[in-house]
Amino acid sequence: MTEAVAVDANAMVDTNIVIYAMRRARAADPDDLREMLASSSALIRQLSYIRVSAVTVVEVMRGLRPEERARKDVQSIFGRFQVEPVDSSAADLAVKLLEERNKGERVCPRCLCSDTEHACPKCHRTVSSQQKLNDAMIAATAETR
After folding, report:
1. Which domain, by its residues, includes 109?
2. CB 50 within 8 A of CB 81
């Protein structure tokens, strides 16, 4: 069951929360996914506006199915976005966050990607270098704006 949580109106909302709020549960979805969808939707409903990074906008558009993007309730969520730009201070902080993450990890000298696996404990997928970069940019934008 989804429980109510106090939400800071200035909090930046992560991409997954936005996508889960926009997505409808399907019959084949497992219970834990249904709970994430319901929790995310409840959180988004509490906010008068939805503060997101510019990176999140791109990730949401990439992550939604075409039929989901066309729905009116999804369009109304997009209409509540307060998009924070990625500026030079956010970019600088993102670099520092990635450098900190890479301390102690082996990094490929050619592509600078960590060769350490970062697998999800549930689905066992690994997080791509691009996703790590996107996450660092979102976190840095939240911190600097």
Report:
1. 88-144
2. yes
Q: What is the pLDDT of residues 68-77, one digit of tens each?
A: 889 999 999 9
| Residues 29 and 76 occupy one common structural domain | yes
Examine the domain organization and report whether 78 and 101 are in the same domain: no
DSSP string, 25-81: P-TT--HHHHHHHHHHHHHHHH-SSEEEEHHHHHHHHHHS-HHHHTSHHHHHHHHTE
What SS3 class is residue 12?
strand
CA distance 12 to 29: 27
Angle at 24 between CA 18 and CA 52, to 5 degrees: 5
Please state, rounded to an integer, the average pLDDT across all residues of the chain. Answer: 82
